[in-house]
Amino acid sequence: MRRILAVDDDSDILEVLQYILEDSGYEVITLTDGRYLFDKIKENQPDLILLDIMLGNLDGRDLCKRVKAHKETHDIPVILVSASHDVSDSMNQIGAPDDFIAKPFDIEHLLGRIKRQFNAAA
Q1: Angle in degrees, CA 63, 95, 74, rounded to 5
Q2: Sign of CA pseudo-dihedral 122, 30, 10, 60
Q3: How far is CA 58 from CA 32, 62, 64, 68, 108, in A?
């Protein structure tokens, strides 16, 4: 079973994401504080990370760059999620996310993007 780490400082959004993703056959780990991202990655070995850009006083784009910069984590696909940012211009830069989804998102669109990342990694 594929494991997804969902990171968002809004616990209501995480609850909805967890329900949708588990209903679609994924194992889901949630995290509300980006400061513990690498601890969760090490502990749970996710196959994909859904990462909100606005994480309180942390920026998900910076966390994504850190994930992509580490030898142990750079192969994990990262999908950034945000209602207020557009990262499409920076998608091909070093340390950029593998994909971006704007909030509010359509469930089928989200699931399609996740499936596309898993297919690309296969």
Answers
A1: 80
A2: negative
A3: 11, 8, 11, 17, 28
| Neighbour tally for 107: CB within 10 Å | 13
Q: What whole-number distance in Å separates Cα of residue 110 and Cα of residue 102?
A: 10
Average pLDDT, 10 consecutive residues per value, the chain (122 residues): 96 94 97 95 97 90 93 95 66 72 90 94 72
Which candidate, 74, 79, 118, places its Cα nearest to that of 98?
Answer: 79
* CATH code for position 35: 3.40.50.2300
Q: Domain of residue 89: give its range.
A: 3-121
> What is the pTM for the complete model shown?
0.91
Domains identified in the chain, total number: 1
